[in-house]
Amino acid sequence: MKYKLYQNNKRKYLLDLDSVTLVELDEIAYSHLTENKKNKDVEKDIKTLKNIINKKIKESEKFYNSDIIFEPSNIILNITKACNLECIYCYAHKEKPESMNMKLIKESLEYIFSNTKKKKITITFFGGEPLLEFKKIKESVALSKKLGKKYNKKIGYSITTNGTIMDKEIIDFLIKENFSLTLSIDGCEYIQNFQRPFVGGKGSYEKIAENIELILEKRKKLNVRATVTNQKIEIKKIAEHFIKELNVGGYSFAIASYPYTKKWTEKEKKKLYKEVEEIIEEKDKRFIPLNISGVWETIKKGEIKKYPCGAGLGIVSIDIDGKIYPCQRFTGEKDYELGEVGMQWEEFINYKKEFYKKVVKKIEEDCGLCELRNICGGGCPYELLTKSKSRSISCNLTKIGVEKLKVGR
Ligand code: SF4
Ligand code: SF4
Known about the structure:
This protein is an alpha/beta fold. It has 14 helices and twelve strands. Among the domains are: 3-64, no CATH class; 315-403, no CATH class. It is 44% helix and 15% strand. It has a nine-stranded mixed beta sheet. The chain has a three-stranded antiparallel beta sheet with strand order 1-2-3. The radius of gyration is 23 Å and the shape is globular.
């Protein structure tokens, strides 16, 4: 058994790392494990626990060996390459600002809806800045509702936006259709204006802060997403601004990675880890980044993660030319293309299976005997396969999350 022990408010816990099982311990069991005070009853309990653990591991293997995991349930439509911002770490503004046409959107939705065995489908609008194509988004939503009725699917919507071109009409529409919103903002005014200026250089903070206020008038909770660069490692300040000034419900952060930014030095990484450790200790739960609370959720739910995410499984990311990729981050990476809209379904699913096998093999090689393997699932496949330089940072953040687990929170 590989395990970790925790003490929180005088209560004691054991986390089994293979099966991701968290159990509360009494004093006798705790001293049996920590002070080597042997106790027969505890030995018996450990045996029972081991049996439960083995059963749970077998069930999770069954899940990952079933074919249903490859059926699409999240369609990412990369609706446009155009963007009105010019972020310092982004590649989109270097591409031709083309958009998806309605014919392809219709074909893509029909292709997935008519073939997938999944009953619940989420459509995610992605860009560039997807709201530059608001009219097409509205048409796609109307179209998907018709297709949902035709193929008996339940549909949800989601959008990732820079939040700068919203107005009352757009916000009302997104709220009426119950969109899950991810707003990208990098922090307080000087960080946002430095890292995410409008094309032409003007700061974008004022506009996005105004729109966040408008959204919060209509919706109680909003989560935002920040990109952290090694030019502004101020995660504590960023968290404080989000929670105290903008009053958002929660936030996550991503690391801007090489080659789009300079390589992180060891000193910079240490500063980031120290700040993350400090915000974890904040009493207000909203300060905990969703990246860390996500690790805690996995542990508390007792999920065994043999695979980290939906890339190549439920996610399909469709590019403006109809080519399909494992997720939004892979879009346009020719080596990881999974086929194209309209191709023979079995062939497409086989491409997905091949991709999955490749990732799993790479995870086994790269993660080796890491004890967090079943909690983190092996880390982002994009970072793994493309050898992005932020992978070691992501590993360390997961480690911090597990070490600092607050069981009662
Ligand atoms: S923490 Fe890093 S090394 Fe460990 S399992 Fe996750 S990705 Fe692999
Ligand atoms: S591959 Fe990485 S970016 Fe893509 S869905 Fe998985 S975790 Fe997210």
